Structure prediction request, 352 residues.
Amino acid sequence: MILKFYFCKMNFKIGDKVRFLNEKGEGIVSKIINKTSVGITIEDGFELPFAVSQLLLIYDESRIQSSVKYVEEPPVAPLEKKNLKPSKTVEKEGIYLAFSPEKENEIAHSAFNVWIINNTSYQLLFTYSIFSNDGFKTFETGHINSFEHELIETIDRKLLTESTTFKIDALFFDEKEHTHQLPISEVIKLKPIKLYKENAFSDNPFISERSLIINVCEINGHKAEELYRPDMDLSKIFFQKQTKYDTSKTSKPHVSNNPAYEMEIDLHIEELLENYSGMSNAEIIQIQLKHFQNALDKAINDRCRSLVVIHGVGNGRLKQEVRAIITSYKNLKMHDGSYSKYGFGATEIIIN
Prediction:
């Protein structure tokens, strides 16, 4: 077997996937600062500056092949895209939000089409809102027939990375006889780094474009309570409700008294705050550490066996601060969290 190695000097480009040389972790080039520095978007969604000398470009097969010249072959006509009809057997019945790149061959620079998919047997009245500043702003309202989808807007990549929290409100109805469904109001948080990953976009049974599909709700999870029927015995219903709500509470042992009880806290800022735009990295870390300290105090007071802290990889600053707090306690031990579950982004604290 003959192995060939390709060595080439290559400038970083927006959308390149890189690995950090001096610490664990990977990221996506999202900004060219100057000849020696670039901005890297890490898994937390934050953009951090890095020196080019501290980064290693990850060469996947497609990138290596793009740097090698081949004999030009006659172009092959692209396959015709078909309008695929949603199938209840492929995906669960429910509402979906989809993002598809406007320019599929330039995902790193492309704007995105936003779709709402109604994969239910009901007609849908909906509102589509985006969080900005101190609240949600509604951008679109409308009606979607059963098992159909609608293009809501085409949103610029920069705006999409700044506005990552969406809200879908929907009412289910049908002109023919149907089972009553409760309305929904669901908030969806999008991690911007997913928009740089080509494998995040895939073929789907809903729309012809390769898309990032996000489940908003499953229809079976929002069924209403049984409605009144003329043959119902109202006295029995009243008695059942009175029994349900008037039963005196009995004392139960606190779950934390179980020595095997474990706690888990996710310190990613999007899990702690709905709006953190405009905050500095220092302010964000202070909030994360405050939440961690409160969770640690609770775990100790409740005599938990362990506390798993999900801090992410990033530049390692939050992990260092968390572990510095842990080492200040004499009765605590720590080790890396389960790699299969958290990768390199968690620390497990054992409470003696």
Residues 1-9, 60-90, 221-229, 240-259 have pLDDT under 50 and may be disordered. The first strand starts at residue 17 and ends at 20. Helices lie at 61-66, 157-162, 234-246, 269-272, 281-301, 317-327, 339-342.
